[in-house]
Design brief:
Residues 27-171 form the Thioredoxin domain. Pfam families: Thioredoxin_8 (PF13905). Keywords: Cytochrome c-type biogenesis, Disulfide bond, Redox-active center. This is Redoxin family protein. By secondary structure, this protein is of the alpha/beta class. The chain has one domain: Glutaredoxin, CATH 3.40.30.10. Helices cover 39% and strands 20% of the residues.
Length: 171
């Protein structure tokens, strides 16, 4: 009986917390998504549009993560390998930490201070994350040289479609 109850509880939890690829892969960002504010490590406010403009003309990989996310931490070595094997590609890390203190601690603890990091001070539910249907982290997106979405949904840095998309854009 105890085992059955445990199985039922785990099943309910898993059903409520599973990742599901969005039904439609978007190729452009909405105006509201682009205007979403984030903060950098120094507490300066910026928008998704400003971040994309800084990387215009380059292929960009966006990595959504948090220090409290077990799956994110487990994926980190492979994410670093992806970054190391694509030196000509820009990487931006968007954190879903719950506080500025948590953001700062995670950057330090996970050796992320030498990377381009931002966090959603407004929390998980915001115009950008709602638009891209962010329902799980880690998540990876590949942005092309015109700031359009080339790879909309990947939940592992080992997803072969990420490298395939990078390679096709880098020709």
């Amino acid at each position: 009986m105890k085992q059955l109850l445990t199985f039922m509880m785990l099943s309910i939890f898993t059903l409520g917390c599973s990742q599901k690829a969005p039904d439609i892969s978007k190729t452009k960002f909405s105006k509201e998504a682009l205007n979403q504010k984030l903060e950098d490590e120094d507490g300066r406010s910026t928008t998704i549009r400003e971040i994309l403009n800084q990387h215009k003309g380059k292929v960009l990989v966006i990595d959504f993560w948090a220090g409290w996310c077990r799956d994110c931490l487990k994926a980190m070595p492979k994410a670093k390998e992806l970054e190391e094997s694509n030196k000509d590609i820009d990487f931006v890390f968007l954190s879903l930490e719950k506080s500025k203190e948590g953001f700062d601690k995670s950057l330090e603890k996970h050796a992320m201070k030498d990377k381009e990091n931002y966090w959603f001070s407004t929390g998980w539910k915001n115009d950008f994350n709602n638009y891209i249907e962010l329902n799980w982290i880690p998540r990876y997106m590949v942005i092309d040289q015109k700031s359009d979405i080339a790879k909309y949904y990947a939940i592992s840095p080992e997803d072969p479609e990420i490298q395939k998309t990078i390679d096709s854009l880098s020709k």
